């Protein structure tokens, strides 16, 4: 599918105690209603980065027929922690989408989240911990993300002089391991699957030579999701590290036509079609429907 894309930049969707939060919006011009939604969440060690990193992806995904929202969120400094604030910023973006749904022709029963690095963390944590019921997170695509803060602090791929996670939480790790566990997506897997509305599919992508975040983060998260019977797909790019999924100033690559994104793109489009565009709108998980069918001996549609 190829559509002419309409772009709105710097649209305000929320406000923190310090600043307004903005997003860039990408919309296909030929589709005016029932648009599936994708929210793009940038990386940057919780301290840098912006929505502009997803310009290429935003335009391309909108051309596939999605309403795309690339968001900014509050960033941490040595004196300003942003957990759980950054997660609340994601929630503000979702609530803005619900509020705008009728005017903009959005189907908020069909939402996918895409994030890289810190953005993958926020996407996974939001889907597993917040578990909304007035709209539906159908899928999460996490690219070289961190999903267990405790494990990453204990077993980093290399020593860090400045711990990005301590800045995120505003706490030293050694005395606050429980708080770091409580801020980790992996902690909420078992709780999520008990929710009758949780019905999120995952696609995890990472580089086998990552020197920023341990590749085991994605390996172990995949295993935990699978053990909980959550549907998950994976792709490891064995010869890549970090910083290749989207564009960084002064760094070559990061566009969809660059390696390995040009190989990933059709896989991502297929995954989104199956999990977002073709998802049912009703906020029942597949697991809950199967339970109800057993109680009443209802025939399931294959």
Automatic annotation (TrEMBL):
Highest taxon, organism lineage: Bacteria
Domain BD-FAE-like positions: 24-225
A Pfam family: BD-FAE
GO molecular function, one term: hydrolase activity
Keywords assigned by UniProt, alphabetized: Hydrolase
The protein's name in its UniProt record: BD-FAE-like domain-containing protein
């Amino acid at each position: 599918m190829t559509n002419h894309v309409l772009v709105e930049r710097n649209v305000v969707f929320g406000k923190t105690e310090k600043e307004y939060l903005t997003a860039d919006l990408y919309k296909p011009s030929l589709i005016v209603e029932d648009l599936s939604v994708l929210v793009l969440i940038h990386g940057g060690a919780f301290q840098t980065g912006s929505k502009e990193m997803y310009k290429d992806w935003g335009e391309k995904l909108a051309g596939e027929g999605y309403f795309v929202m690339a968001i900014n969120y509050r960033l941490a400094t040595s004196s300003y922690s942003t957990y759980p604030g950054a997660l609340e910023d994601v929630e503000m973006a979702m609530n803005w989408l619900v509020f705008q749904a009728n005017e903009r022709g959005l189907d908020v029963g069909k939402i996918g989240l895409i994030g890289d690095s810190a953005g993958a963390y926020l996407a996974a944590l939001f889907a597993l911990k917040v578990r909304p019921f007035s709209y539906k997170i159908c899928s999460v695509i996490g690219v070289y993300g961190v999903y267990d803060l405790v494990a990453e602090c204990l077993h980093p791929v290399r020593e860090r002089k400045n711990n990005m996670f301590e800045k995120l939480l505003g706490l030293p790790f050694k005395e606050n391991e429980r708080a770091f566990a409580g801020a980790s997506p992996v902690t909420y897997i078992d709780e999520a699957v008990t929710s009758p509305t949780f019905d999120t599919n995952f696609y995890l992508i990472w580089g086998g030579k990552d020197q920023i975040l341990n590749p085991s983060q994605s390996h172990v998260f995949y295993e935990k999701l699978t053990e909980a019977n959550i549907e998950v797909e994976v792709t490891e790019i064995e010869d890549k590290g970090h910083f290749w999924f989207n564009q960084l100033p002064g760094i070559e690559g990061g566009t969809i036509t660059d390696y390995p994104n040009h190989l990933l793109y059709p896989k991502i489009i297929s995954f989104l079609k199956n999990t977002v565009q073709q998802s049912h709108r009703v906020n029942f998980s597949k697991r809950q429907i199967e339970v109800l069918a057993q109680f009443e001996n209802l025939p399931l549609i294959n």
